[in-house]
Amino acid sequence: MDQQPEVSLDISRFILPGAIVLAALMISGSILYTKIESSGQLGAAIGDDNNAVIEVSTDDDQVLGDPKAPVTIIEFSDYQCPFCQSFWHDTFGVLKSTYIDTGKVKFVYRDFPLSSIHPSALVAAQAANCAREQDKYWQMSDKIFSQQDNLGTDKDLVRWGGEIGLDTKALAQCIASGKYTSEIDHDQQDGMAAGVDGTPTFFVNGKRLVGALPFSSFQSAIEKELNK
To answer: What is the pTM of this model?
Structure first.
C-alpha cells in the first residue's frame, strides 16, 4: 500500500506527456493528409480507379480535338496546382499528338481552383475563359502553365495575354468584371458531384484517373475504350 501512490505517480508522469505526443501526431498527420490531398499529391499516389463509370458533363467548356471522337477526357484542374503543371509539361503534349490530333480523343478542361491554398488560381481561370472570347483559350492555358511559378495578379495574366496576341484592354476588362465566376463555380460543383477532391482529376469516358500520371496510364485507359 505504501508503494501504490508511487506507482500511480509514475504512471501519471508518463500518461499525460504520452497523450500530448499522440494528439500532436494525430493532428499533424491530419494536417499533412489534408495538404497532400488538396494539392493533388494524394491523387498522384493512388493512381487510377477503372472500376466505376461516372457520369460527368462536358458542360459548355472548351473542347480540344474532334467533337465526335470516341473517347472523351475531362480534366478538372487548377492553374496554380504544381501537379497540374506536371501533367501539362510531361504528359499533355504526347497525349495531344498521339490521340487528340488523330481524332481518337476529345479533351475538355474544366476549372477546379483550390482557392484556399492557391490564391491566384481563380483569377487565372477567369483569364483563360476570357481568352476564349478571342479564340485563344488553349494558347492562354498553355501560357499560364508555362509561367505558373510567376503567377501572381491579374496584371501578370494581362501581360501574358499580350504576349500571345490578345487584346489586353479587352482581356483586362473581362477579368475585372468577374463574368466567368458562375461558370467556374459550376465546374467545381460538377466536379464535387463526381467525387473530385483534388487536382488534377480526369475522367476517361467516365472512368477516373487521379493525379499527375504518366502517359502510359492514359494510354492504357484510352486503348481499353477504343478496343471495346
So the answer is: 0.79
